[in-house]
Amino acid sequence: MLPDIKSPPPIAFNPLKHHIQWVKELLDTFRREYPNSLLTELDKGNNLLCDYYYGDLDVVEIGWEIIKRLKEKDLFDRGRYTTWINSHVSKFRNLVIKDGSEWTLLTGDEDRSYIHIHPARYSKNTIRVRFLALKTAILLKAMSNKPIPEIQDVNLIRTHYLNVSPVKEDGNISHILRVCALFSRLPQANL
Question: What pLDDT, in 10s, does the model give residues 68-81?
Fold first, then answer.
């Protein structure tokens, strides 16, 4: 089981899909000893595009920044918040927080977490990637010490752990390498 998400209430946020610092801390705990728990969590997502935050703010700081901005706009109350979100044609709103990153706000399903957030598309300090590429990079980081994985490493993770087809030998894995670079603190060209 993954550690509790530390977003302050009423923020709903999935750091596994959206926050590199949280995943790095998770990997320090899970590594090779608990791959099944990690695989169970990774199996919950689809392969849609997701925006992955790699900035300096942790999960708690992001939550408090969102709360602060909503209180400044007198929108922290659930009723006013829901009306504000639902009055927009797209049923979401974006807010910029102190590091310049932009966050998408939606309505959550529960009373205690009615503010659902994730990084906005193409926001500062984010990378847009398919969830399968993100899952592959997370498992490569959890199970390998290689700073730059090779296609054989990628295919082992894809076929053995994620139950998806391998990448062709001449296939492009640059999207996976870009996420791996974030974990390895390698130069991040073209992010």
Answer: 999 999 999 999 99
